Amino acid sequence: MTLYRRTMLGLALEERAIVAAEICKTGKSVKLCRTAEFAYPEGLSLDDPQPLGQAFADFLKRRGFSAQTVIAGVPARWLLARQKQFPPAPEAALANMARLEAERTFATDLDHLLVDFAACSDVDTGAQVLLAALKRDRAERIRAMLQAAGLKLKALTATSVVLAAALQPVETPFMLLSLRPGHVEIGVCEDGRLRAIRHLPVALPANGNTLPGWKQPLMNEMIRHAAALQQDSAGGIKSLVVWNGAGLDAEDLLELGEPMSIPTLLIQGMRELRLERSNGGASDSAVSAANGSQFMAAAALAAAGAGQKRLPLDFIHSRLAVRPKSMVRRRLALVGAACIVVLAAAALLVADLHAEQRDVELLRQRLDQMKPEIEAARDLVQRANTVHGWTDGRPRFLEPLRELALAFPVEQRIWVMAVNIRQDMRAMISGRSASERAVLDLLDRIRSSPSFANVKLLEMRDAGGNTNETSFGIGFDFIQKE
């Protein structure tokens, strides 16, 4: 007897690559069939979805992929994600609260965003949710690229959310660190649910290459985000779980949890995934064909699509989508509203007019007494919003100041007296130095940095007075990174 065989393709989208894994499901048996990594051809990107999709279709055909249905995952750097707390409420009321919170949090027209939320805790005791948004135009480019490749997009989610849910049971809560050559993500997972996620601006060495000094910047960023990520986790973070999708040395990765005094667990093989299994699940040959752990996220996406459960996060089938009401329910609501209006009018006519006037006067007096408290509350809210803008995101001009500070030599006597950065990220610095040589050395260091362009020496002259110091001015453009 031949059982019905179903295939599902999981795609972990990255800036310049697509990691693919195909799951074959026969009855209750789940098997990992094929894996591959597609690097974008030179000159193609998601901005040109049609030619990119055609190139991707040729790639899948050459590698023997047969699945037509796709579960696609996007990296954290493409998302706007916030953790929110709501009181106990039914699912419909929770969706309404999340929709209002999204309009306030993301401070933009929701027509330009695809928004969904993933529950991080039981709604009966107070809901913690991960509220996430993806730009609508980026989602449309992804859909157009997959259509050009002859694929049907079943769901669009966040890669790390599905990967965290698929990992084998680990003592929770734990911090999940996802490492890929193109991006680094960190989040907090509890009971299989990712409750917070952030992108870390850290460069990692690609397979077979070396990048000196990559570990310390990564540890610094982890420490900087750790306090904010674990502040709502009861009992504190138990361990650091590292998905080594970048092929890094295991000994280097085991040291990452030491600054936070938590043990480090490495996830490096397909057997670490919590897939539905029958008679052993995925075969050993399929696992070995994966050649490491870089395909784990794509395999988790495919397995989630082959299952029956709803994805924790799905921007195409959002829980925040407003469902149209039937005409019968709408008419009943109108009739009910009309009855309420009639009853309210009758009650107003029966009420004692003088008593109402007296109540109104008392309320006005009370409102006048509360005016100082209201003004103080408004002032407090304004200050809180100002502080929130600095702590909830990375200030725009912080990155150029950091890169400029890294360009200064430690051993030279040279200092900056003024920094001017314009809105178009053109900047000028002026200062003094003990010698002209130090100024020229600083100029060379700024020019050699990939973060600056159009570096020019505007002036260099004797500072005058009773010193031998040299005053200088340097202009440059800061190259913004996406």
CATH fold-level name of the largest domain: Nucleotidyltransferase, domain 5
Average residue-wise pLDDT: 80
Task: Note the gap between the termini.
Answer: 54 Å
Total number of beta strands: 17
| Whole-number count of domains | 3
Which structural class should the secondary elements be placed in? alpha+beta
Spatial sequence of strands, sheet with the most strands: 3-2-1-4-8
- For this structure, what is the CATH class of the largest domain? Alpha Beta
- Main sheet? 5 strands, mixed
Number of helices: 12
Helix percent reads: 25-40%
Using the alpha-carbon principal axes, give the shape.
globular
Order of helices and strands: EEEHEEHEEHEHEEEHEHEHHHHHEEHEE
* Fraction of residues in β-strands: 25-35%
Helices and strands in order:
Elements: E1 5-13, E2 17-26, E3 29-39, H1 49-63, E4 69-74, E5 79-86, H2 91-105, E6 113-119, E7 127-135, H3 136-148, E8 152-158, H4 159-166, E9 174-180, E10 183-190, E11 193-200, H5 215-230, E12 239-244, H6 250-253, E13 264-267, H7 284-289, H8 296-306, H9 327-350, H10 353-391, H11 398-407, E14 414-421, E15 426-433, H12 436-448, E16 452-462, E17 470-478
Parallel strand pairs: 1-4, 4-8, 9-12, 12-13
Antiparallel strand pairs: 1-2, 2-3, 5-7, 6-7, 9-10, 10-11, 14-15, 15-17, 16-17
Helix pairs in contact: 1-3, 4-8
Structure description:
The chain has helices at residues 49-63, 91-105, 136-148, 159-166, 215-230, 250-253, 284-289, 296-306, 327-350, 353-391, 398-407, 436-448; strands at 5-13, 17-26, 29-39, 69-74, 79-86, 113-119, 127-135, 152-158, 174-180, 183-190, 193-200, 239-244, 264-267, 414-421, 426-433, 452-462, 470-478. The protein is 36% helix and 28% strand. β10 and β11 form a beta hairpin. α1 packs across α3 (136-148) and α4 (159-166) crosses α8 (296-306). The protein has three domains: 5-306, Nucleotidyltransferase, domain 5 (2-Layer Sandwich); 329-391; 398-478, General secretion pathway protein M, EpsM (Gyrase A, domain 2, 2-Layer Sandwich), CATH 3.30.1360. The chain has a five-stranded mixed sheet, with helices on both faces. Strands 11-10-9-12-13 form a five-stranded mixed sheet, with helices on both faces. Strands 14-15-17-16 form a four-stranded antiparallel sheet, covered by helices on one side. It is an alpha+beta fold and 482 residues long.
